[in-house]
Every structure is written in C-alpha cells, then in structure tokens.
Amino acid sequence: MSGRERRLNALAATVERLRGELTAAQEAADARTLIGIATGILVERGHGGPTRAARHLEELAEAAGLPLVELAADVVDGAAGDTVALALSGAPRGPGGGHHSPPDVLRVRAAEAGSLTDDPQSVVDTLVEQVLAPLGVSAVALWSVVSGDALALAGHAGFPRGEAERWRFVPPGLRVLAQRAVTERRAHWFAALPADAAAIGRRHGTDGARAVLPAELGGRTLGVLEVCWAHPRPPLSAPVSRQLDALAELCAHALPGTEETAAGTTADPALPGGPAMDLADGLLDPALILRPVLDDNGHVADFSIAYANERFADPAGRPRAMITGMRLLAAYPLMACDGGLDDHVLRVHATGEPFRAERLALRVLVDDVSLTGLLTVGIGRYGDAVLLSWRLEDEAARLSALLEHVQRLGRIGGFQEDAVSGEILWNRDLFSLFGLPPSASPVPVERLYSHAHPDDSVAIGRFLRTLLHHRHSASTVFRLQRADGAVRHIRVVAEPVTDPAGHLLAVRGAYQDFSSQHWTEVALSATRDRLADTEQHAAERNRLALQLQRAIMPSSHAPVAIAGLHVAVRYRPAEEGHLVGGDWYDAVVLPHKKVLLAVGDVAGHGIEAATGMVVLRNALRGLATTGAGPAQLLGWLNTVTHHLTEQVTATVVCGVYDPQTRVLDWARAGHPPPVLIHEGTAAALPLPGGILLGAVAEAEYEERRLGLVPGDRLLMYTDGLIERRDRSVEKALEQLLATVGAATPELGEHLDVLLTHARSDTDDDTCLIGIDVC
C-alpha cells in the first residue's frame, strides 16, 4: 500500500470517526432535552424543584429497570396526550429490541423534534432515521400540493438521484398513487405495488408494499407522505398505521400552506384557531374545547382537552398550559364516578343535543384530597368537538375553595374552641400538622405544654396568660413534638371572643408550620457568618466568574469563517478588575444549516452575572436547534430567565441567518440596535418591540427580516460601547454611526478602531461583533 493510499485511508477513518462522534453528540443532546422536559413535567406535577424532580426521575428509572432517557420519553408521551401519543398507544417495539433498539416513543418523539423546521428534506431525513428505517422502509417521498391535484416533490430518501429529478413535478390528471390520497383524502395501503400504477421508484427496488397518506393540518391536505418497502408485505397493524398517520401530520407542519392554516383558515371549526376557539373566548364562563379520542375499534374512549379559554381556572389549581393536551379523564379522574360529567359529554357528542344542568357535582383531587364543587354546566357539540363550559354555583363555594388552597399552600390549620360547651373544632389540615389521625381528639390550647418542647414552656405560658386571663389577642412560636418523633416549628395566633360583660365565650385562631422558613433562616445565618469570616471565598467566586467569562469570550482576534460569513469579535473588560460582567456573544451553525448570531448583556457583575450569562447562552443554543424564529426564541428565553434563574435580567439581540438566501431574521429584548454598513453608508436598523428578558413572566417579541448582499457588514454590540452618563442613548448612537462610517476594509482593524474611539464612560464591559457577508 502506497503512502498516498495510507493517508487516504487514515482520512476516511477520521471522517467516519467524526461522523460517529457528531451522531453521538446529537443523540446525547436529544436525550438531555428529553430528560429536561420530563423533569419539567415532574416539577409541574408537584415533585419539588428541578433538582428534586431530576432525582425522582432517576429513582423511577432505576426502579423500573429502564434507561433514564427511555423513562423520560414515556413521561413526556404520557403528559402530551396528542396525536403522537395516540399513535404510540399499543405500538410494537422496533425490530430486534434489545439494548441498542430504543422504544418507539423515544424514536417518534425525536422525529417530532426534528420536524420543527420549514425544510421538508430535513423532516424526511429525520423520519427515516428515527422511525421508518426500523420498520423496514426502503424509500420515502414527501409531496407538496401545488395547485389542484398537481404535486411537487418536497423531500425524498432512498430513491436514485435521477429518479427523484424525474418526479420533481407531477401535473394534475395523471392519477398517480399520491394524487389519489389528495383527491380521496384518505390513506391507501398496497401490499404490493399495482402493475398498472404510476408511482415514483418503480423498477428501482421500491416496487414492494407501499402506503400513501394525506398530510393534513387544520382540515387542509397540504401534501402526501409516500412510504415504500422493497418487497411485498402483509397489511400493517393498527398501531403502526396510527403511527404513520401521526408522521404524516408532522410532515404537514413543514409544507407550504402551514402559515395559512395556522392563521385560522381551517376547514375544521373544532381546531384551535378556528370558530370554536373564538366562541370559547367570547364566553364569560370558563370553557374547554374537547376533541374525541378513538380506540382501536373506532369508538370514543375519551376526550382530549384541545383548548381552555382565558377565563378557565382549574379547580385543582393547575395552569391552563398543563391542562391543555391532557385527556379529560386524566385531568379529572373522579369525573367518571357516580354517572359523572363525562357521561353527559359523551352523550352530547353522540347525539348532538345540547345539555345544561345546575348544581351538578364535580369532584377533583388536590394533593390526594377530594374536593367537591357544585357547578352550572353547559355542553354543546361544535363540528366533531364538544364545547364544555361551567360556572361555580356561588361566591361562597369559590371562597371556600380558595381558603382551602391558601391553607394548604401556607401550611395553616384553623381552630375554634367553645368556652361554654367545651367543643373544639379543627380543620383537617390541623390534624395533619400535629401528626394526628382525623379520628383523634383535638388538642386544647391549654394543653400545648404536653405537645411542645420543654424549653418553650415559658413562651407558651406567656401566650396563654395574655389570651385567657387578659383577654387579648396573642401569638407565639414553639417547637411541636409530634408522636411520630418529628419536631416542627409552629407559630400560633389566637384571639378571644367575649360577651359585653367580658366573659370568655370562645377562642379562635390558627397554627402555621414555618419549619422550612426557620431552617432556611438558620442556613442563611450560617452562610452570612461564613461569608463574613472569609475573603478567600469571594476571591474564588471572582476567579470562577472570570473563567466562565473567558470560556465564552474569544481568545483570538482573527476573523472566523462560518457558513459564508466572516465573524470577528472584540471584548473589553471593565476597568475595575473585580467587576466581572455578563456580556456574551454566540455565532454557531445550527443543525438545519442556518447560523445563530447573538449578543447579550446580563445585568450586574460578579458570579451571578457570569453564571446567568452561561445559562442564557447555552439555553439559547439549545432552543435554537428547534428551528424556531428569533422572536419565538426570545419568548422562550424570557421564560427561562424569569423562572429558571434567580432575579436575572438581561438584554439580547438575536438573529438567525440563512446562508442560502442571505436573509437575516432578527429580534431584540431591550438591546441597542445592530448597525448595518451597506455600500459605505452606516445606519442603525429599525428597532422591533421587545422588553428585556426576565422582567415579566410572559412576553412577546417582534421579528424583523433583513436581506443582505455580499460586501455588507453588520455590527452587533453591548451598551458598554456607547453608553455615557452625560448624554442620551440616541446621541451616543449618532456618535457611533459617525465613527462607523469611516470603515476600514479589514474587519478586525475596523473593530479595533471602534473600541479605541468609543466614548463610553460607564466603566462597563463591552462586547463587539463584526459580521461580513461573503
């Protein structure tokens, strides 16, 4: 073997190794995403914070003997309640099984994530890799409906290149197999390709079994998914057929016409976005839109909650986003008891006759406690869906439910003691607080000594003298020693009820368990003592912040070529060495071949700003792999900032650049505008609306589109470049544009000049990115 052949073999081996590492990294990223979603579901269901929920997920996987990612996929599938979940119910495992064959739920959920793109070819590649290849499929074609019965090949896999080019466009009237699925609006199965049928792939090893399925969205057929096998085979099982139907629906999201369907021009009025949702939003009462869920025999087995209007308040306290998508009986399992509400919903769907009733009981579970409310209910059929609205009977019932929630969340138990009859009334939360069964006798306030720590006897004695002898309201804290050995820190507040002569009639009050707050205060006190005694800890935090910052900030001044762009970055730290800031940037090629460009600035300095910078940068990278636009990415990133960080706020400008079209879609969250240099003229881009991240729980962001041409230069920066104490941001931006206008041909030199002549005086970090379009 010659030296050249050895080098070629070594190069081929390196390429294959890198391909394997990339695949493994992608699978690991998908697994982390899936585990993160499952952890979030457990947090939403009350399994503690993220750390506790993650530990609970690991314990469940270990107990079930399943890999963690497989159990996470099952959790996501069980919570989704969508068409994908329906398709997977009862579906067989992939061929071979074993350790290296993931279950269908994991593969299909990965395929669903891969379909979140407007590139049909990427969707086809994902479906083949994740789902269809294990089913023995040899080729796939995804057609887009152009006009009438005409079809265009939007994506394909497994066909020879020449065959795909020959079938790039199918005019109307040919009656190919794919056109039959469009005109008849139903799926077709062929155990073997008919001899007289015109179809892509004939005589190219794909003339075996074939399935053609309409790709529908919102009642419109946007395309056809054509699945081919190399050899004849028996008909598919019902679970596999449902799985193919779900994949066809996923494909519809990537086909042209999706935007029109999403805008509300759907043929099915029961779909969200249609008239049914408008009707629900127009009601003054809480309302749900329910869609039927069919079993294998085509019978209605349950209903899924397709939409909840803005006035809907879940009796169990769950948010609307958690209820939407759930099965009706999964959300309200007690609804099926005693000839409950689900019977009326089923009858209305079957007969079309509306139903209305007053004082109808609805029982719900709140922390394993059954609560019953009396409702006025209205049910009507709308298309193939059911509109369910209800109203609590009166204000007293609502206030009672609210009081129960407040007591549960605040760990409060109320009591009242009748001084005349000796009767003592406790609510059920108080029995739980004292560790007593509901059948036990309540503890009078005069006998608190027998249940408290001996060292607290003086405080309890003072409390009882004030309350029972002086007839004044009183409060105190003590350590409750329960029969199960647990010690709880309790606050008791009580007031006497007297007649006009001052005789004691009753005592009423409440106990509150503040043990968590107590131990938190103890921990904080210990932390403050440790921080006061050591300066080394602060130095270590600052060093860690510097390391985090340097891990993100560039170490090289040379421009980097990336997807048809030249990108150069300059970073200038604050003059005060201890003021480590939260400025960051990112420029990375995404899985769908677009480029993510971002610059951000986390408020504040030190380890909090640096860790917040890392969280936001990594979160944005992960979210961008979904294929969402910049406005949607910033909306999600705002949720991350508000809920998953501690009082962090930040400004960001985010863009997604398409190298094929040279189009940049961008949005901002409270950040200064980018500057475009086109044909020697510098101008700030018009600002889209967008509040800074973390300010509110939910925010919407505007998105702008910018077409670029070779020779254009785009500058993105943080406010440390222009901010001054003695002038407005507008004046500072005008000064920057005047400096930018004298651009030098070389990108790195241009950035150096801008930093040199920057007139900022706020002693803040500065991050500056230059992007040249090639």
From TrEMBL:
All residue ranges annotated as the PAC domain in the record: 474-526
InterPro entries associated with the record: ANTAR, Bact_Sigma-Reg, GAF, GAF-like_dom_sf, PAS-assoc_C, PAS-like_dom_sf, PAS_fold_3, PPM-type-like_dom_sf
Stored SMART domains: ANTAR, PP2C_SIG
SUPFAM superfamilies reported in the protein's UniProt record: GAF domain-like, PP2C-like, PYP-like sensor domain (PAS domain)
Annotated Pfam families: ANTAR, GAF_2, PAS_3, SpoIIE
Entry keywords, A to Z: Hydrolase, Transcription, Transcription regulation
Transcription as UniProt keyword: yes
Domain ANTAR: 15-76
Gene Ontology MF, one: phosphatase activity
Domain of life: Bacteria
Membrane spanning stretches: none
Transcription as UniProt keyword: yes
Record protein name field: Putative stage II sporulation protein E (SpoIIE)
Phylogenetic placement of the source organism: Bacteria, Bacillati, Actinomycetota, Actinomycetes, Kitasatosporales
